[in-house]
C-alpha cells in the first residue's frame, strides 16, 4: 500500500536528505578522481533541495503516517535549523576533507543521513518513531566522529561516544517500553490523556519518563550526563564537532520539549525540579570546567555544556509559567537560542577547524597567540563568535540570553535567573581570555597562516553575518519562533 | 528641534569614523592618527550644537528621537538629552580628542586598532548618556566594555591582562544583575521606555511593594556602584587605571566612572525613590568611607598613577554623597563634581602619562625636583593638583562646595565627615607634588628631561583653560543643570497611597513553584484535569 501524497509531502525533507545521501554514496565510486568536485556539489544540492522541501509541508501542516509524525510550525522551524546547519557543514568541509585526505562520499552521505534522522526527531509524535530518528542521527554521528581513522585520539573519542551513546539510546528505549507498559500507548497525545486521567501506574510511568530524560540528557549533554562531551568534541574531526554541537542538540531539545510538554504536561510537578536542578548543575559544571581548559576545542566543548544549561533554564521557565502565554514565550526563547547557538558555535568550530591546519595540530589556546597580526579577519571573526557566546549586545547570543532571562523572570524563576547571570560572568572570563591571547600575546613559534579556502570563507561569512543580524534585528526569526512555539502543543 | 537627528548623528559619527579607519591601510600611521583625531574634533564640534539648541529652563528631555526597533518585546530606539546628560556628553566629546592627542607618540603598536577602539568607545559612552530606553541603555552599557577591555588589555602596562579581566568581570557582574532588574521592571510595566516606566511608577498605575522596590533598587544600584566605584567595590579601579594606557585612564576616570553616578541619578532615584530614601543613610556611610579611605590610601601610594586612581575613589565618594543627600543644591554639586573630576583627573592622568613617556615609570621615588628641568610641565601639574584638591576659583571647588552645602542643609554630620576629605586631598596631592617636582633633582637622569612639547602644551593649556572657566564661570553650567536636578527630586515624589507598602499586584519574589495544573485554562491540552 502506498502512502497518500500528503504524507509523502510532509516527509519530503527527510526523503530528500536520505535520497541524496544514497545518491552520493552510489555515485561516489563512479566519479573519476579528477572530477571529485561533483560529490560535494551533489551534497550541497541535496541539502539545498531539502531546505526547499521544508517549505512544502510548511504549507500543509498536519499529521502524517497515521499520526506517527506531525508537521507543524515547530517541526518546520527545527527542520530549517538542522537543514541550514547541514548545508553549512557540507559547504565548509570539502576543503578540510581534501586536506586530510579523507573520502568525501561517505562523509557527505552520513551528514545527510544524520540530518534526516534529526528531521524525524523534530516531527515525531510517537515515541518509537522518535527513537528511530534518534538512532539514525546517532549512528551516523558515531561514524562521523571516528572519520579520521588514522588518528588515535579520534578513535578513542569515537569509541567512547559509541559506547556511552548506545547506553543512552538504550535508556531511552527502555523508558519508551516502560511508558508503553504504564499507558498502553507510545503516541504522545494518548500518553498525555492517560497520564492526565491518572489511570496508570505512577511508579512505572515516572521510571519511564526518567529513563527517557536520561537518554535525552545524554544527547543534549547536560550534567551529570555530559562526561563524554569534551572527549568526543576534542577527538572528532572539527567540522564534525561543529555539526555535533549544533544540529543534534537542536533536534534533541525539540524531542525533549515534545515529550515534556505534549506527553507529560500533567506530570509537571514531577519533572520541573529535575529540569531546574539539571539546568543549574549543567551551567556550573560547564562553565567551571571551561575555565581551566588549555585546548580551545575542549573549552568550546565545555562551553556548549554550559549553553545546554542556559537552554534548560528556558525549559524550566516554560514549565513554571503559570499560564500559556509566558510558557509560549519561554519556548520561543528556546527556539531562538537554538538558532543563535547553532550559528555561533558552528562558526567558532569551523574557524578552529580552519586554523588547526593539516592534521589539526593547532587547537591549544596558546597556538592562537598573535593571530590578530597574521590573520586579522579570522581573529575578528572568532572574536565575534566568542563575544556572541559570551552574550554581549549586538550579537545573536545576547538576544538569545535576553529572551531566556525574560522568560525566566516572567516565570518568576528568580533564583535560577540569578544563577544563570552568575554563570554568564564566569563564562566571560574564559571567552575574553582567548580574545586577549589572540590580540596581546606574541606567538611562541612562527607559523605561516594558510589562506582560508572559499567554502570555509563562505560559511564563516554567513555565520558571522547571521550572528550580527540576529543580534540587531531579531524580528523575522522571532515571529517565526513565536508561531512555532504556539504549534508545539 | 523635536525631529532632528542631532543625537543620532552624535552617537554614530564616531562609529562611521571607525569604519573609515578600516579603509586606511594599516601602515599609514600618520593618516590614521589624523583621520581619527579629525573625526573626534568634528564630533566635539557637533556636540557643541547641543549647547546652542539646549533650552536651559526645560526640565524634560530635549532633541528626542524615537523609532521602532524590535517588535517583541517592544523595544524602541529612544534618545533624549536633558541637563544631566548634556554636559556628560560634552565631557566625552571633549576628552576623547585630547586623549587621542596624548597617545600620538606613545602608541606605536597596532595604531589603527587603537584609534578604532577609541572611536567605538566614544560612541558607546555617548549612547549610554543619551539612551532613554532601558534595553538600549543596557546595549550601549555593555558594548562599551569591549573596547575598554581591549584598550587596557592590548596597550596597557605589565599587568594589563589581569587588570583588563578584572575590570570587565566586575562590571559585567553588576550589569547582568541590572539586566534582570530591567526585565523584572518590564514584566511589571510592559515597557522598556524610561519616561513611560517613570510615569507609570510615579502615578501609581504600577505599584511596587517595598520589598520589590528594594530588590530592584539593589539590582540597578549594584551595577552603578561597581562602576563609580563605591567603597567596598572599588578594588578593580586602581588596577584598571594603573595598567591602562594614558588615553584609557583618561577616558576611564573622565567618563566611565561617571556612568555609575549618572545611572544613579537617572534610574535609581527617580524609579525607586522609597528604596533610595531608606537606603540613603547606608549609601552615605559608604560614600564617606570611600572619601576618607580613598584619600588615606592615595596618600601612601608609592606609585603616582595609583595615587591619582585612588583619588578618584575619594572624589567620586563626594558625588555619591551629593546624590543621596536628595537636595537640589547637592545634586547640582554632584553633577558639577562629575564634570570637574572628569577634567581634572583626566588632565592629571595626562601629566602622569607624559612623565611616563619620558621615564617609563610611575614610581614617585624615581622623580623629584622636576621643576628644574621642566618648569612648564611642573607648573601645569601644580595647577591641576590645585584644581583637583578644590582650590577656590578653580573647578573642583565649586562641586565640592555645592555638595557639602547641600548635604549640610539636610545632614550636618555627613557633611562634617565628608569635609575631612577636602583636607586629606590637599595633603596627598600637594605632598605628591612636592616629592615629584620640588627640591633638588634626586635622580641624575631626570636632569636632562625635556619640558612639555608643543603638543603637550596644547593639551594641558586647553585643560587648564577649561578648569579656570569652570571655576569662575560656573553659572554657565549650573543654569543648564538646575531644572533637571530639580526634576530628579520631583520625580521622586509619589502619591501617598502606595507608600503604605503592599500595594500592587502580587510579589514577584520567591515562589519558584511550577504551574499548578488545575489553574490552567481549558481548551489547550496542557493540564488534563477536568
Describe this structure in words.
The complex is a heterodimer of chains A (489) and B (530). Chain A has 489 residues and is an all-alpha fold. Chain A has helices spanning 5-10, 12-27, 38-59, 73-100, 104-123, 127-145, 152-183, 188-197, 202-220, 228-235, 238-263, 268-291, 296-320, 324-356, 371-374, 376-390, 396-410, 414-439, 454-472, 475-486, and strands spanning 62-64, 69-71. Chain A has 20 helices and two strands. A two-stranded antiparallel sheet of chain A has the order 1-2. In chain A, strand 1 and strand 2 (69-71) form a beta hairpin. Chain A starts with a helix and ends with a helix. The mean pLDDT of chain A is 89. Chain B contains 19 helices and two strands. Chain B has helices at 6-23, 29-53, 83-102, 111-130, 134-143, 145-155, 160-189, 194-202, 210-227, 236-243, 246-271, 273-299, 304-323, 328-359, 375-389, 395-410, 412-437, 454-472, 474-491, and strands at residues 62-70, 75-81. In chain B, helix 3 (83-102) runs antiparallel to helix 11 and helix 5 packs antiparallel against helix 7. In chain B, 59% of the residues are buried. The model of chain B is unreliable at 498-530 (pLDDT under 50). At the A-B interface, helix 8, helix 12, helix 17, helix 18 and helix 20 of A face helix 5, helix 6 and helix 7 of B.
The topology string of helices and strands of chain A comes to: HHHEEHHHHHHHHHHHHHHHHH
Strand order of the largest sheet of chain B: 1-2
Structural class of chain B: mainly alpha
- Strand proportion of chain B, as a percent range, falls in under 5%
Report how far the terminal alpha carbons of chain A are from each other: 31 Å
Instruction: Specify the number of helices of chain B.
Output: 19
Strand count, sense and closure of the main sheet of chain B? 2 strands, antiparallel
Q: Judging from the principal axes of the Cα atoms, what is the shape of chain A?
A: globular
Largest β-sheet summary of chain A: 2 strands, antiparallel
- Percent helix of chain A, as a range, is over 70%
Low-confidence stretches of chain B: 498-530
Q: Terminal Cα separation of chain B, in Å?
A: 61 Å
Find the biggest chain interface.
A-B, 59 and 52 residues
